[in-house]
Structures are given as C-alpha cells and as structure tokens.
C-alpha cells in the first residue's frame, strides 16, 4: 500500500513542471490539505525540489538524490527497486537480496555511491557520490545453456548504449569488448555479469549485472585518471536516466537468447578489425579481432587460426578506432 507521501509524489510527477493547487491534489487523492502539505514537507526533506506559490500551488522540479519511487514511476514499476545513499557495492546488495528469494524476479538496486564497488577481476570501481550512476539488476536466467552467457553482458551494454546515445546525442560512444563503454579513448562506464548458481541443479538461477557510469565526475584517482573519463560536465537527472536504462535492459532481456542486438553491438565495437591483446589470467594473446560471435564471444585471428573467447579482457588495441 502506498503512503501518503508516495501518492502525493506520483500526483506531482504526473504533471511535472506544471502548477497544481493544494486543493486539487487533496481532492484528487481524497486527502486533507494538511496531509498534502505534510507530504510536500517530507518530500522536500528527502531532497525533492518542489516550488510553491500562493496563487498557483505546487510544482515539481526534480530530485538531486536517487529515489526509488521516482525511478519506479518512470520505469512503470517494471521491477522491484531499492535505492540507498551509500553501499559497499550494489552487486553485494543484489546478491544478498537474491539469497532470500524463493522465486526469482527482476529487481534493481541503485546507490548514490559505492565504498567498495568492483568490476571484472575484482578491481575497484571508483564510485564517488552524486556524480555517477551505480546499480545492479537481478535477471532470472532464461538462457538454454551457459555457453550463451556472453549475450547477457553484450546485450546489457547495447541497451545502455542506446539510452546514452539518446541522452547525449553529440557524444561518440563505443563499446570495447566485452564490458566497457567508451567515449573516445576514455572509459566512461563498465558492466559486470555474475551468475548465481543453484547448488542442487548446478545451473544458474539468475544473473546479477552491475553497471557503473561516470556521468559528470570531475576528478579521478591518479591510478586511473589517464584511462577514465566522464560523459558530460552538465547536471544529469539521474532518476529519469536510471529509469530509462532499467526499462531498456529489461526489454532487451526478454529476447536476449536470440542475440538480435548483436548487429548494434558490432557497429559500436572499438576493437573489430584491429590488432588487440587479450588478457586471460596471466596469459596474453595478441591477434586481430575478426568478429563478435553469435554467443557474444570475441573471435581472434592468430597464427594458429581463428579462436572464439568467451572470457578475458582486451587490454590493448593497436589504434584508437574512434579517431
């Protein structure tokens, strides 16, 4: 059941940037004027910007903080959503939640910052407060077998890319296999996919996909400042962006096994046709990136022939293909 604060928030969001009188809101929701005023006060304390004028009423302007109710509204309640100002990692949050669920259903976990966010190979993902978007999505496993797991990461990357291209049409984004979102030569986003296994059946019950985006982070630690970048210097409505990203990811996932997004992924690839170095643990393999396979793997051509790799990290590309 929705609280009074949630009901008033939804009424304001339904006519965002438009004036609504307190009487009109109260009448529409079957509340008293005092209840509406108390809800407005509570929303303001929670970080919502709401303008007010005696002759016109209230007008919703936005929210600087991530808010589960706002994201859920714009995502049309497509999944269970949780938001916290700060967590160690949204991946950990999602996996803890998943451990308590009898039935797997989509869910999303957002955080204003991560104090111990991580990416592939356990590396720290720099996640400062208020300048990025960090979230994890629980997706029930719908793949026939785990040889197609590469489709999850490539599919999520393609879905995120489409949203970012609409939001920032002047930015020349690219995708570096398998999980990096690039802007020029700088990494502005990363994706990690982890499988949660059912011990009894030895199969994956669900995937937990973590997404980190550097929206308008101004400074990075010295260790990564040469390779990390931000998408914009302008303010970003993180709640609406979060909702669009979540909606796109869930829509893509309905047909993920078909790989119907792969043409778009290939078109945005920054590695195809270039000599790359692939790190596989302590091994380094250098070859020409020939293709993205139907299962999401990277096809490398070496002196030994063509080989498809489902894991690993591209650590070097011979030239910047976006220039």
Automatic annotation (TrEMBL):
GO terms for molecular function: biotin--[biotin carboxyl-carrier protein] ligase activity. Residues 22-41 bind DNA. Residues 65-257 form the BPL/LPL catalytic domain. The gene is birA. InterPro entries: aa-tRNA-synth_II/BPL/LPL, Bifunct_BirA, Biotin_CoA_COase_ligase, BPL_C, BPL_LPL_catalytic, HTH_11, Transcriptional_repressor_C, WH-like_DNA-bd_sf. The keyword ATP-binding applies. NCBIfam families: birA_ligase. It holds the Pfam family BPL_LplA_LipB. Belongs to the biotin--protein ligase family. This is Bifunctional ligase/repressor BirA.
């Amino acid at each position: 059941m929705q609280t009074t604060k949630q009901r008033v928030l939804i009424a304001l969001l339904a006519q965002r940037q438009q004036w609504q009188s307190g009487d009109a809101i109260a009448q529409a929701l079957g509340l008293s004027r005092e209840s509406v005023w108390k809800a407005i006060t509570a929303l303001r304390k929670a970080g919502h910007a709401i303008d007010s004028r005696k002759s016109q009423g209230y007008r919703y302007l936005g929210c600087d903080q991530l808010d589960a109710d706002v994201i859920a509204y714009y995502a049309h309640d497509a999944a269970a959503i949780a938001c916290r100002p700060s967590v160690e990692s949204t991946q950990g949050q999602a996996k803890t939640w998943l451990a308590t669920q009898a039935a797997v259903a989509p869910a999303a976990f957002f955080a204003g910052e991560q104090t111990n966010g991580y990416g592939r190979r356990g590396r720290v993902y720099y996640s400062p407060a208020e300048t990025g978007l960090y979230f994890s999505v629980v997706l029930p496993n719908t793949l026939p077998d785990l040889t197609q797991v590469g489709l999850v990461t490539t599919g999520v990357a393609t879905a995120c890319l489409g949203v970012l291209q609409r939001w920032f049409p002047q930015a020349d984004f690219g995708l570096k296999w398998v999980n990096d979102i690039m802007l020029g030569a700088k990494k502005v986003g990363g994706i990690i996919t982890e499988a949660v296994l059912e011990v009894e059946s030895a199969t994956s019950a669900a995937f937990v996909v973590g997404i980190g985006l550097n929206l308008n982070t101004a400074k990075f630690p010295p260790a990564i400042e040469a390779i990390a970048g931000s998408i914009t210097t302008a303010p970003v409505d993180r709640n609406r962006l979060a909702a669009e990203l979540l909606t796109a990811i869930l829509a893509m996932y309905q047909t993920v096994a078909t790989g119907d997004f792969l043409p778009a992924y290939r078109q945005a690839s920054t590695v195809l046709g270039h000599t790359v170095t692939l790190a596989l643990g302590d091994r380094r393999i250098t070859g020409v990136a020939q293709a993205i396979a139907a299962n999401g793997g990277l096809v490398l051509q070496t002196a030994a022939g063509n080989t498809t790799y489902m894991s690993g990290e591209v650590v070097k590309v011979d030239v910047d293909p976006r220039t």
